[in-house]
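Q: Please design a sequence for this.
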């Protein structure tokens, strides 16, 4: 974008965005975008490499690097490009008309007037990058309802990003893989040592993080998730109690029933009867 002799920047074309449009760029040092009136959609930009720059109407700038996520709301001037002195800028982007229920996902801190910003690291950065790439692949893949697939993938990226919004219950990125591991392996033997290895932490450090951020130590959290899964199986299936116990990691159905009663105040059989409106057999 060279601009005219008077120094007025040349307007960058504004894309047509029915609901969502995503993509990725790997740009050199001269890359610049200027839209004096912004766009009617929200623009999300995720930096995956190099450095970029966002300018604001008050003359200040925000320099971004790997893991930075920037959000420009509708009507905010688009003044961004490769940062001065950088060899290039690699970015994933999305123009989107969000659904109304996305409002909490877009409530990020404002770094500059009209420019919202989050920094992502570790597992969260990887998940956002993966979800952006999936949104682009689905949106360009020619599937029926491709736009809805892309919109859902972008929502996943924003959900991951929302775990890092300051002032909310920000989750340590090292816990994310552990929580997923627990959810996927409830039927298997789980130990603090094994979960700690998954997170790359010592057992004592993992226990501290669980207690600090989730309010319970690791194995109490595991049991809580197992009991939640057991309640669902009892309510939604007719599996015998012993089979439900095995499905959530208990080989001994009597011990499972004891733990279930401690968590819920009733036996597995009574819980099933209550959920179906039936009387438990005597």
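A: Design:
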């Amino acid at each position: 974008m060279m601009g005219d002799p008077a120094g007025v920047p040349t307007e960058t074309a504004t894309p047509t965005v029915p609901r969502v449009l995503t993509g990725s760029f790997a740009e050199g040092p001269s890359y610049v975008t200027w839209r004096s009136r912004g766009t009617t959609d929200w623009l999300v930009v995720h930096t995956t490499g190099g450095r970029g720059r966002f300018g604001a109407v008050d003359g200040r700038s925000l320099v971004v690097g790997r893991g930075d996520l920037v959000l420009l709301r509708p009507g905010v001037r688009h003044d961004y490009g490769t940062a001065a002195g950088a060899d290039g800028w690699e970015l994933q982007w999305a123009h989107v008309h969000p659904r109304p229920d996305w409002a909490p996902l877009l409530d990020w801190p404002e770094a500059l007037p009209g420019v919202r910003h989050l920094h992502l690291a570790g597992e969260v950065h990887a998940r956002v990058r993966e979800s952006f790439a999936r949104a682009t692949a689905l949106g360009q893949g020619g599937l029926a309802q491709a736009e809805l697939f892309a919109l859902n993938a972008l929502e996943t990226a924003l959900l991951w990003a929302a775990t890092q919004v300051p002032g909310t219950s920000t989750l340590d990125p090292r816990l994310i893989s552990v929580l997923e591991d627990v959810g996927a392996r409830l039927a298997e033997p789980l130990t603090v040592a094994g979960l700690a290895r998954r997170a790359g932490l010592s057992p004592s450090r993992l226990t501290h993080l669980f207690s600090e951020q989730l309010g319970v130590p690791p194995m109490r959290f595991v049991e809580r998730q197992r009991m939640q899964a057991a309640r669902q199986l009892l309510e939604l299936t007719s599996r015998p109690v012993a089979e439900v116990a095995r499905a959530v990691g208990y080989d001994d159905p009597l011990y499972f029933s004891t733990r279930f009663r401690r968590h819920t105040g009733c036996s597995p059989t009574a819980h099933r009867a209550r959920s179906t409106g039936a009387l438990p057999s005597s």
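Q: Thanks. Anything notable?
A: Residues 123 and 176 are 7 Å apart (CA to CA). The chain has two domains: 20-162, 173-276.
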